[in-house]
Amino acid sequence: MSSKNRSFAAGLMGSLDEAAPQPEGPTRMPVGVLASRENRMAELASGAVVGRAIEQVDPARCRLWSEHNRDYAALDETRCADLIESFKAQGRQEVPAIVRRVRGVPDIDFEVICGARRHWTVSWLRAHNYTEFRFLVEVRELTDEEAFRISDLENRAREDLSDIERARDYLKALGRHYGGSQKDMASRLNVSEAWLSRYLDLARLPAPLVAAFADPHELKIKHVTQLKPLLKPDDRERRVLAEATAIAARKGEGAALKPQDVIRLLAAAADPPKASGSPKRSGSTGDVLTAAGGAPVLRIDGRKRKEVTLTLLLAGGASRSEAETALRSVLDSYWPASSNT
């Protein structure tokens, strides 16, 4: 376990230290131990220390909280490999998951607030000849809003939760717990409104656009600033979503596109060439020429009096013949057949 997670777990749990085991048979307890226990009892009575129940339970009798921000269906041996090896090496789960008790539901005793990967890992180990493993849990009494904040606090300390998982969780919580007020939500989470807004923008990206990416979990907060402007005004949004649908339909044909390649294709679709066929200026990225079907072919990156710099967009999806047509159009524009210069 990393030092960051160890320190986080220590602060989150806040449980009582266990007393050292005593030898069998009657012995005289040292005065120091008695004094220590009396001090602990006084702290508990005053509320300075809160004792919480730690239990070993059957993972099959636990369910994930409906607002849990982990995509449980996406968990597998690869995403949980670190926990699998750690649990095997230690012979147990060391950091308890946070749960709350469920009443009145047959076959279910607990609801997992934090610890989906730990739950998945113990379940996997029990199904693969490690039947002695039990699910270590810390039982708490929590409202839904408290459960959300604790879950968010724990997962901010972890790097394996994708931005889009966290973003979708924030968007759901905004309406469920904070009446749609980003200001109130940011205050309760102790984050800036701008920081929260970027996550909400990521969660609000249209489903067809997200589907264009080979793995939605690769979408990051940094991509929002590139994608959001492509969706305004409405005519640009229509072109972008049409291109996103076309990209999604081509999945499985050749190597998977990286997120930045997808964004370049969407940006090219947002601002196609003018009807005259001349390329459209698109800022610092140069002029992009597209094929008849809209696939970007090449980019004109720079012009000087006697030279032009071209970049072939090999991942754009155009064919060789379309590339040759685009190159000929550039030659005709900048080096006419009648010209000898």
How would you sum up this structure in a few lines?
The chain has 13 helices and nine strands. The protein is α+β, with helices and mostly antiparallel strands and 341 residues long.
Name a few traits of the molecule.
single chain; 341 residues; alpha+beta; Conserved hypothetical protein from pyrococcus furiosus pfu- 392566-001, ParB domain; 5-stranded mixed β-sheet; 9 strands
Task: Give an overview in words.
This protein has helices at 3-13, 31-46, 81-90, 116-127, 144-156, 163-178, 182-189, 193-203, 207-211, 221-227, 234-249, 259-270, 320-334, and strands at residues 53-57, 62-64, 97-101, 110-114, 135-139, 280-281, 287-290, 296-304, 307-312. It has 341 residues and is an alpha+beta fold. Among the domains are: 48-159, Conserved hypothetical protein from pyrococcus furiosus pfu- 392566-001, ParB domain; 205-261; 275-334, no CATH class. Strands 1-5-3-4-2 form a 5-stranded mixed beta sheet. α6 (163-178) crosses α8. The N and C termini lie far apart (68 Å). The model is unreliable at 7-34 and 275-285 (pLDDT under 50).
Total of DSSP H or I helical runs spanning 4+ residues: 13
Unreliable runs, pLDDT <50, ≥5 residues? 7-34, 275-285
Distance between the termini: 68 Å
**Hey, roughly how much beta strand do the residues contain?**
5-15%
Average pLDDT across residues?
A: 80
Please report the total strand number as a whole number: 9
**Any idea what the CATH superfamily of the domain at 48-159 is called?**
Conserved hypothetical protein from pyrococcus furiosus pfu- 392566-001, ParB domain
CATH architecture classification of the domain at 48-159: Alpha-Beta Complex
Looking at the structure, the CATH topology of the domain at 48-159 is: Conserved hypothetical protein from pyrococcus furiosus pfu- 392566-001, ParB domain
CATH class of the domain at 48-159: Alpha Beta
Reading side by side through the largest sheet, how are the strands ordered? 1-5-3-4-2
Order of helices and strands: HHEEHEEHEHHHHHHHHEEEEH
The structure class reads: alpha+beta
Q: For the report, how would you describe the main beta sheet?
A: 5 strands, mixed
User: What Rg is obtained from the alpha carbons, in whole angstroms?
Assistant: 29 Å
State the helical fraction.
40-55%
Backbone shape? elongated
